[in-house]
Design goal:
Protein name: Oligosaccharide flippase family protein
Number of helices: 18
Order of helices and strands: HHHHHHHHHHHHHHHHHH
Organism: Candidatus Acutalibacter pullistercoris
Main location: membrane
Largest sheet: none
InterPro entries: PG_synth_SpoVB, Poly_Biosynth_Transport, Polysacc_synth
Strand content: under 5%
Keywords: Cell membrane, Membrane, Transmembrane, Transmembrane helix
Low-confidence stretches: 505-510
Mean pLDDT: 83
Structural class: mainly alpha
Radius of gyration: 23 Å
Length: 510
């Protein structure tokens, strides 16, 4: 892939990703209005259990397909791609159907035991119907990434989002559910409908791509199952263990808050405010990064396959540098206006208070997205597994030990410790395997100071002229702060020359 094509695809994917994030935030805002904070807490808990089954059905598959298809292309054997894709699709279908059946038959005890809401069992069954669609789409996504056609996946995701939202709105308009469980069931059914539509769209694009780009003659690819075991299995075990621990953590939080002294409704509300509202808002700007991060996987995998170590270090250095530069600005913006963002999107200043409180974690949260992609592209998924598992285990232990005594304040402290712990391990591993060099002054101190100065100047200026806290004013504040950020970087960078080039210097490639 040429540099121009890489950036063009990245920009298009970012546009689609931004559309998905914007509509998802609007969707969550709509749901919070229909369900309330307690209903959002139950909604999030149901998805926490479902997330474990999704992990078992999909985790590691996309990466394995991308790596194996990229290897076939790099070795000049594209005729093996059909064999790789067919075997991986069959594997995905077998696994996902098995897990969907388990979820169907175990929905009643899971809802009663873990959710404390037996009436939520139909929600789990309806979600389980979408597992085969999700697993097959994940497999095809890996193929599209490897052959530089990731836009096909993006359009399918957009179709899924639009149908899910439209079906949910229609359900609430037509049936006006009176209970939290019935309302959640409607939202889950809409989600499954969207997954089915996404699969049909992806399958049509997949068949067209095979006919257009891959030789009709099929050569059997040796070692597909071994490749799945080597690449996907560590990711699956890691993600499954982490998802299991995350599910346990999410289920424990309301229970431990009740032991702290909160009523069940208030405990669900506090959980919904943080995990169902504040965290999605904090992650929202990372849509600009996640698109490019996904494109880095096949690019780095091919350079590694060809033993271009300096090229890998060059790509890693650029990715980490620009991620930090991007994240500093949003960390500053959320710290200054987090309460307003929560009020605008959810009508809840309380969720905005969590946004403002957790804003300093934004650089590490965004960095983890990019570093995780780089490590997986470099066959470091086993180490990534260890870090993620350790992080999740520590969080569960701390939740059990602290929440019943100190409430939500202790959970915020746990989030800070956990994020710093995970990011330190992952970034440290990336530095070791790529010989990446980072400068504390040029890549932390100077751009962080510039980000805070520009965001604070924009915030103060708009408040001085009497701007309100409505969405247009907040967007204007972001735009003004962004416009001030580049000259602030220039002022914060010592010496002459382009400040961005000095902040992230070029490295020689092989």
């Amino acid at each position: 892939m040429t540099k121009q094509k890489f950036f063009l695809q990245g920009l298009l994917l970012t546009g689609v990703s931004l559309f998905l994030r914007v509509t998802n935030m609007g969707y969550r805002s709509y749901l919070s209005g229909q369900l309330g904070a307690a209903g959002m807490g139950l909604y999030q808990l149901i998805f926490s259990i479902f997330a474990l089954t999704v992990t078992l059905s999909t985790s590691g598959i996309s990466l394995a397909v991308t790596r194996m298809v990229s290897a076939a292309i790099a070795s000049g054997r594209p005729q093996r791609i059909r064999s790789v894709a067919a075997r991986c699709l069959l594997f995905c279908l077998t696994i996902s159907l098995s897990i969907a059946l388990l979820l169907f038959f175990l929905a009643d005890p899971a809802a009663a035991l873990f959710l404390g809401e037996p009436k939520a069992a139909p929600c789990l069954r309806v979600l389980g119907l979408g597992l085969p669609f999700m697993s097959l789409c994940t497999c095809m996504k890996g193929y599209f990434l490897a052959v530089d056609e990731s836009l096909s996946t993006a359009w399918s995701d957009a179709l899924e989002q639009v149908l899910t939202i439209a079906a949910t709105v229609f359900f609430f308009w037509r049936f006006a559910p009176q209970s939290m469980e019935a309302a959640c069931l409607g939202a889950m059914a809409a989600s499954t409908l969207g997954e089915a539509a996404s699969f049909l769209s992806s399958w049509a694009a997949f068949r067209r791509s095979l006919g257009r780009n891959i030789p009709a003659c099929r050569e059997k690819s040796p070692g597909v199952l071994q490749g799945l075991a080597h690449i996907a299995l560590p990711c699956t075990l890691s993600s499954a263990a982490r998802s299991l621990l995350n599910t346990g953590e999410n289920l424990l939080i309301p229970r431990e808050l009740q032991r702290y002294g909160l009523p069940r409704g208030e405990a669900l509300s506090q959980y919904g405010l943080l995990q169902g509202m504040a965290m999605p808002l904090l992650y929202f700007p990372s849509s600009f990064l996640s698109s490019f991060a996904s494109l880095l996987i096949p690019k780095v995998a091919r350079e590694r396959e060809l033993s271009h170590r300096k090229a890998v270090a060059h790509i890693a250095g650029k990715a980490v540098g620009w991620t930090l530069l991007f994240s500093y600005f949003f960390a500053a913006a959320f710290s200054l206006s987090g309460a307003s963002w929560g009020a605008v999107f959810y009508g809840s200043p309380s969720s905005g208070a969590y946004v403002r409180l957790l804003a300093p974690l934004v650089p590490l949260l965004y960095l983890d997205v990019v570093v995780d992609s780089l490590l997986k592209a470099m066959d470091e998924q086993f180490n990534s597994m260890k870090y993620n598992f350790s992080d999740s285990l520590i969080r569960v232990v701390l939740v059990l030990c602290l929440l019943r005594f100190f409430g939500m304040e202790s959970y915020v402290a746990i989030l800070f410790f956990s994020t710093i712990f995970n990011a330190s391990l992952s970034l440290g591993r990336l530095i070791r395997v790529t010989s990446l060099r980072l400068s504390l002054l040029r890549q932390v101190v100077f751009p962080l100071a510039a980000a805070w100065a520009s965001a604070a100047a924009a915030h103060s200026l708009l408040r001085c002229v009497g701007a309100d806290t409505a969405l247009p004013s907040l967007l204007l504040e972001l735009a003004l702060g962004g416009a001030l950020y580049l000259p602030a970087l220039w002022l914060a960078s010592p010496g002459r020359g382009n400040p961005l080039a000095r902040l992230f210097p070029k490295q020689r490639r092989t």
